[in-house]
Structure prediction request, 311 residues.
Amino acid sequence: MKKLSVAHLLGIKYLQLEDLHLIFETATHFKEVINRPIKKVPSLRDITVANLFYENSTRTKLSFELAEKRLSADVINFSANQSSVSKGETLVDTVNNILALKVDMIVIRHPNPGAAHFLSKQVDSCIINAGDGTHEHPSQALLDAYSLIERLGDLQGKRIAIVGDVLHSRVALSNIYALKMLGADVKVCAPKSLLPKHINSLGVTYSSDLMRVLNWCDAVNMLRVQNERMDLSYFPSDREYSQNFGLNYERLKKLRKEILVLHPGPINRGVEITSEVADSDQAIILDQVENGLAIRMAIIYLLGSQLNISE
Prediction:
């Protein structure tokens, strides 16, 4: 059996191209499984997974939990606002108490960048990063890339645009790493106030002209404006942001070609994308959700299988 080159999924930047191909290949198998009448397989029935979410989440948390159950793993769900964290318990103490229950794998979302990497050095368990602050969100990037490959084929030379709140987006950084590894040409489009200072070091190009970017690209990933991470105003108003960087149907109709539209969710309808676009045939947002389940099954299966091998 092929193995990943890593013992944890901490970020795309720690993976090799062969890892991405193995995850995609495995996800294709599991996509067939989840479309069968009986959607459950006994692959990880001896594995216990704990989901530790220190931030609110709907899609990612549900997707990971369902993926674990589809693989027949035992699942423990942990929510920080209903735990001893509110009494001052540290991350390492929390995790060590959970590990004392003989947990094999931990899926963690945390507001602090580097939390998953830190944890992987402190505890004896497989760690999967489900989003760490504004740093990385590797499973989202993998499902986005997989969704693009389904529609566009090999991404070598394909033109992919990332539009919106790049500064606060862990999805943007992980997507850039994954798309560049797969040979895509990546361009970002955003107000300059929503660009990280190190954007030039990531091997992407920048434009503030949305229509020019849309005419250039084969697919566009519309990022959510992350108001909850903004402690000051980065643009005058939602209305002005939408006028300059929002995707509406009129803009799509003016293009010389059809492009694919992605969004990591949750959608601020009417801000970064209108309902007409989100619900159109060009949008593959629901494909992303379905593929997210298959990708996360693949990640958990591959890492869980390596745990069995090491034992």
Residues 41 and 310 are 22 Å apart (CA to CA). Residues 12-136+289-310 form a domain with the Rossmann fold fold (CATH 3.40.50.1370). The beta strands are 48-53, 74-79, 105-110, 126-132, 159-163, 185-189, 205-207, 219-222, 260-262. The chain has a mean pLDDT of 91.
